[in-house]
Amino acid sequence: MASDPTNVREIRDGVLARQVSAAEVTRAALMGIARSNASLNAFTQVFENRAMENAARVDARVAAGDRLPLAGVPVAIKDNMCTGPDLWTAGDGFGYAGLTTCASRILENYSSQFTATAVQRLIDAGAIIVGKANMDEFAMGSSTERSIFGPTRNPWDESRVAGGSSGGSAAAVGAGLVPLALGSDTGGSIRQPAAFCGVLGLKPTYGRVSRYGLVAFASSLDQIGPLTRSADDAAIALEVMSGKDALDATSSTHEPPRAAGLDSHDASPLTLGVVRQGRSGANHPSVADALERAIQEYTKLGAKIVEVDLPLIDHGIAAYYIVAPAEASSNLARLDGVRYGRRAALKPGEGLEDLYARSRGEGFGPEVKRRIMLGTHVLSSGYYDAYYNTALKVRRKLLGDFERAFETCDALLLPSTPGPAFKIGEKTDDPIAMYLEDVYTVIVNLAGLPALSMPAGLADVGGKKLPVGVQLIGRMFDEARLLSIARRFERATQWHAARPG
Fold first, then answer.
1. pLDDT digits 0-9 by tens, 169-182
2. Sign of CA dihedral 129, 131, 134, 135
3. For residue 210, which of 61, 137, 251, 409 is within the disulfide window of CB 3.0 to 4.6 Å?
């Protein structure tokens, strides 16, 4: 077996069979990162020495007979998930230090004293954390241009964005540097970059994966999920990460979905609802073509196709950009320059309020400031009912629309994004145009449902081939069925096997 780190299952099985060592796989991944990261800027930190040390520990555990479900699999972690020092990690010496910056100046030197539960579960399963992935500052963006480390570049065309906010994670998997990366999805931040980089990105049901150790953006919307090359690989990662966590009161008691459980859905009758609003004339022609091809492929596979109406999609983007900034303004209030994070220098005679204002003014970037101010405004006296309460009513009605659709459908099908990846700098001066990149994804977070984006075509733009994706949305805690439906498409097509260059 080759040590090219592109497939979770093959790497895991090869390491467990001792056909290849975790050290060999990790070394290959680190060499690939060293070759490519200067141009892609997918990683903010790379843990060369620590990764090799932990690969040696994995090899020792495998030699002792441990059947680790992610043995030797290199993983990239989005830089808003805490990674703590060895002293604070569980029992057997596994652990990672490094910084947790959220790609923000205010946390540029922050070192966490604990490790996020989802990350720790991967480590305990034998995964090798090779580094932290670039992102939009505090996950607020759709292009990974809002980062103190500079933009991540799309591996298919380095003049274009990788998507956001989990752009570094998507680019790392899309470029074949790692077979698995973790992202966070508040309004599409896993699925949109997955579509732009030609990989599969899964946003699980809210509560399926613990949020402990994920730096909060909008607490009722945030969810950690995997980016991989295939539905099978996403299922393996999700099984490891899922489950109740005593450290997160919002984590679910549902049993983790079993990767082997995908098979039980493979032969079941399938009804797919095609969302009427997803056939918008505003979509790029390549996106419209990909959606129609996906419908045709599922029809050939025996699926019943019905049209579904989600009339609140257009209102969903407005509701999201009230709810998410409102929660962000509350969550980021803790970054005050006193307890941790960047502290500004005061001039003689300045007091505590000056410290707050100067530290936040220096530490937060323009998009984060914009959303904090918007969130504070919609929560303020006189505006709370007009904006925030109205957005919550839209959120409840949107969930009702989904519930009615799932009375007759196993999953819903619509585009992941309105178009393929856009040029770096093309939309940074137009916040509305940037926000509309998420028009098909934010509704899922408002409803708390699971959804995934999978590769479904290639657009020819300016002589370059660029990936486009389609999105599947499922019932709450029905990720196994959702991944099985995606796997049927993978087996009938080869879009997931397309590679940059």
1. 999 999 999 999 99
2. positive
3. 251
